[in-house]
């Protein structure tokens, strides 16, 4: 075999080894829920190794739990917070108002988010230095200590 064929075979073999070794680092997810009858929270974390890549939340906020009686009052209370989320790069947030509750959908892409701006929003909470990355294991421990239950698939 000439040198070019041998070199080509080595490069191909190295590529296959690198490609296969990356297969163990696949993205995983965990979902946690919590409810007190006034608020229902569902958080899903997407992570690789122990680093959270993104997080989604679907939160149902019952008007009685917010201390408001109708959609209009809920909009006055939640609207300003929702608008602050929309100003942050890497965050998608929406609110849908129903007759007795509002449903918030929130996605945070940690690879794009302005973490300093996110930490200033009411309700955003992190442990450790967010700039270093969000730890899945620390997030899970914090959630479980606050009464969240992991949803097993």
Helix fraction bin:
25-40%
As laid out across the biggest beta sheet, the strand order is 4-5-3-2-1-6
User: Separation of termini?
Assistant: 52 Å
Give the SSE string.
HEEEHHEEHHE
Structural class: alpha+beta
Gyration radius over CA: 21 Å
- Mean pLDDT score, rounded? 81
Enumerate the spans where pLDDT stays under 50 for 5 or more consecutive residues. 1-23
Number of helices: 5
Spatial shape: globular
Beta-sheet strand percentage? 25-35%
Q: Report the strand count.
A: 6
Molecular structure report:
The protein has 153 residues and is α+β, with helices and mostly antiparallel strands. Helix content is 35%, strand content 32%. The chain is built from five helices and six strands. It has a six-stranded antiparallel beta sheet with strand order 4-5-3-2-1-6. Strand 2 and strand 3 form a beta hairpin. The longest helix is centred in the N-terminal third of the chain and has 19 residues. It is globular. The N terminus is likely disordered.
Task: Summarize, please.
The protein is an alpha+beta fold. 35% of the residues lie in helices and 32% in strands.
What descriptors fit this protein?
153 residues; alpha+beta; 6-stranded antiparallel beta sheet; 5 helices; 35% helix; 32% strand; globular; disordered N terminus
């Amino acid at each position: 075999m000439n040198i070019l064929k041998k070199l080509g075979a080595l490069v191909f073999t190295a590529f296959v080894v690198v490609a296969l070794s990356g297969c163990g680092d696949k993205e995983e997810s965990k979902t946690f829920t919590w409810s007190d009858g006034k608020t229902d929270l569902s958080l899903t974390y997407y992570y690789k190794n122990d680093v959270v890549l993104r997080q989604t939340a679907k939160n149902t906020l019952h008007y009685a739990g917010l201390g408001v009686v109708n959609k209009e009052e809920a909009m006055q209370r939640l609207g300003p917070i929702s608008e602050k989320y929309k100003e942050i790069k890497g965050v998608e947030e929406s609110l849908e108002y129903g007759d007795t509750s509002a449903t918030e959908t929130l996605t945070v892409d940690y690879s794009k988010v302005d973490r300093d701006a996110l930490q200033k929003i009411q309700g955003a909470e992190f442990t450790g230095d967010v700039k270093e990355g969000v730890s899945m294991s620390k997030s899970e421990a914090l959630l479980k200590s606050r009464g969240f239950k992991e949803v097993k698939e």
